[in-house]
Amino acid sequence: MGSVSTGLSKVEVKLKWDPSVWNEPPHHLDIIATAYSSEDPYGQPVYVVHFDSRSPDGTINMSRHSQTGQGFGYVEVMTLELDRLASSFARVVVGVAIHQSDHPKTFGDLTNAGVVVLEGYKELLKDDFARVAGSTATTVAEFSKDDSGRWEFHEMIRGFDSDPLVFTAEMGNAQRP
Asked: SS3 sequence, the chain?
């Protein structure tokens, strides 16, 4: 008997970075996910998930959040249960944004920063943000349905120079290179 592949089901996006030095404001990064409908997969998101929020149906949520980067390893984690998303969704884009304070910060200003995307123990993406060192936000991954309705992963590292609020409106307009 052959197996039937349903595509991706449950995915985790994990983020790490070193805390700022003692006399500087904390580095505060956030994982952000935007979900798009089948009718308008590159338009406005149906909803946005970030710290202190989750999707209305609970399929995308933050299980760990850090405002400083303090801790061991990956200090912020978002879980996406793609196989449970309503059939009306065709696309989810995940990104990372740096909160801006008095002194603008880019990924190049951070040390030991990185993101990993996992399905179970399988690593789909690991990146250190070197390609977007001059940016304040970046898309990381796109999850989209193929013609048979299976969820697929696409790496989508693309830098932006916007604050987290503006980034949530821009990030879904990005198409894979």
From this structure: CCCCCCECCEEEEEEECCCCCCCCCCCCEEEEEEEEECCCCCCCCCEEECCCCECCCCCEEEEECCCCCCCCCCCEEEEEEHHHCCCCEEEEEEEEEECCCCCCCCHHHCCCCEEEEEECCEEEEEECCHHHCCCCEEEEEEEEECCCCCEEEEEEEEEECCCHHHHHHHHHHCCCC
